[in-house]
């Protein structure tokens, strides 16, 4: 899978090289693509950045579903711009992954073959216009909570991609909140739609941060390498603490009867999502998994002629005799 291999296996096992690498990470240095890195570090980054890129691309589907049905021309223009931003995020992230020696085609093929994942959240449907508000407010809100610390991640291209992505995500979050504000202050039917969207998106949004720390297989190593800057539970807690007052401002009720402010810890106590549902979604059994993958497969198949044309053009350019002076 990895076209650009790092040094020999012996070098990979070299304790001095590993210690020097860890010392660079501990000192807060950025690791750049052509520098020596342990194979595990490279593979973890390809997995995480690739999964992140796939999420941005698949994430266009539930929102793209509403572009033609947005209630006003202004809302349509805003949503169109947001969905285009998500495509851009996917492309920066595929580029960051490519610097690690894996091609975009290989990543897409791995996704379509079920060997790579995308965020669980995009396997839930967007049934009403209020869902578009909830996606911006909660899903982009959770994404920002996760991605702001990733601006300091140890791999240079990933951290730099995150800086631009986070700026755009904060607009996305605000546009979602603005839709929710309008709906929550609208007619009785609109308030009902807003509450219903919060009810359906609350727990799937909490799941975006990944399994609880005790079940997170990658966190310890990823944090030692500063690929991840926080644990899943730390970020989930921060998200709840930030979002509950926003729901109160909107006059909406978070669908958790056990939600309580805990003065001692300075945060909310809240109910865990249904982790059985989360792992089922990861296995492909969520409400929209089949539909999302079918859409990606169709886009991949429909685009084959473009890729073939570009490759043929590039081959022709390479083999063309150099023009005489
Ligand atoms: N969904 O050991 P763990 C967006 C998997 S897009 C699916 O804790 P890790 C947006 C995990 O991969 C934002 N799978 O893993 C776009 C692992 O399985 P594998 C997307 C999940 O990597 C459009 C297993 O569970 N953001 O904002 O240390 C429109 C064990 O987990 C999920 C990113 O991708 C999940 N939610 O931590 C609107 C952020 N959670 O791979 C908005 C970058 C866990 O061993 N990624 N798994 O088979 C990360 O920060 C980390 O990868 C995670 C998981 C926190 C997600």
From TrEMBL:
InterPro entries: Aromatic_CoA_ox/epox, Ferritin-like, Ferritin-like_SF, PaaA, PaaA_PaaC. The keyword Oxidoreductase applies. It is an enzyme of class 1 (oxidoreductase). GO terms for molecular function: phenylacetyl-CoA 1,2-epoxidase activity. It comes from the Bacteria. Its EC number is 1.14.13.149. It comes from Roseinatronobacter domitianus. Keywords: Oxidoreductase. This is 1,2-phenylacetyl-CoA epoxidase subunit A. The keyword Oxidoreductase applies.
């Amino acid at each position: 899978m990895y076209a650009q291999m790092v040094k020999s296996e012996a070098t990979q096992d070299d304790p001095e090289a590993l210690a020097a690498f860890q010392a660079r990470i501990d000192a807060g240095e950025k690791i750049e693509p052509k520098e020596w890195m342990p194979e595990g570090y490279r593979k973890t980054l390809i997995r995480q950045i690739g999964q992140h890129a796939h999420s941005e691309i698949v994430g266009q589907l539930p929102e793209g579903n509403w572009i033609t049905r947005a209630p006003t021309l202004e809302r349509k223009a805003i949503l169109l711009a947001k969905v285009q931003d998500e495509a851009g995020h996917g492309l920066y992230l595929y580029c960051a992954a490519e610097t690690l020696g894996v091609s975009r085609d290989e990543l897409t093929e791995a996704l379509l073959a079920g060997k790579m994942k995308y965020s669980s959240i995009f396997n839930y449907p967007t049934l009403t216009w209020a869902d578009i508000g909830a996606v911006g407010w909660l899903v982009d809100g959770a994404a920002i909570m996760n991605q702001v610390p990733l601006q300091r991640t140890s791999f240079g291209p990933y951290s730099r991609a995150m800086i631009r992505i986070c700026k755009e995500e904060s607009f996305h979050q605000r546009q979602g909140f603005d839709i929710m504000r309008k709906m929550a202050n609208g007619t009785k039917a609109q308030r009902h739609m807003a509450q219903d969207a919060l009810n359906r998106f609350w727990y799937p949004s909490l799941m975006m941060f990944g399994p609880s720390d005790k079940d997170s297989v990658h966190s310890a190593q990823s944090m030692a390498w500063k690929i991840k800057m926080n644990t899943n539970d730390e970020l989930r807690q921060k998200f709840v603490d930030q979002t509950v007052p926003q729901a109160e401002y909107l006059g909406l009720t978070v669908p958790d009867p056990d939600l309580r402010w805990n003065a001692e810890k300075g945060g909310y106590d809240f109910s865990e999502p249904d982790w059985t549902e989360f792992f089922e979604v990861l296995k492909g059994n969520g409400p929209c998994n089949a539909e999302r993958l079918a859409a990606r497969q169709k886009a991949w198949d429909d685009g084959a002629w473009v890729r073939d044309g570009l490759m043929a053009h590039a081959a022709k350019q390479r083999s063309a005799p150099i023009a005489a002076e």
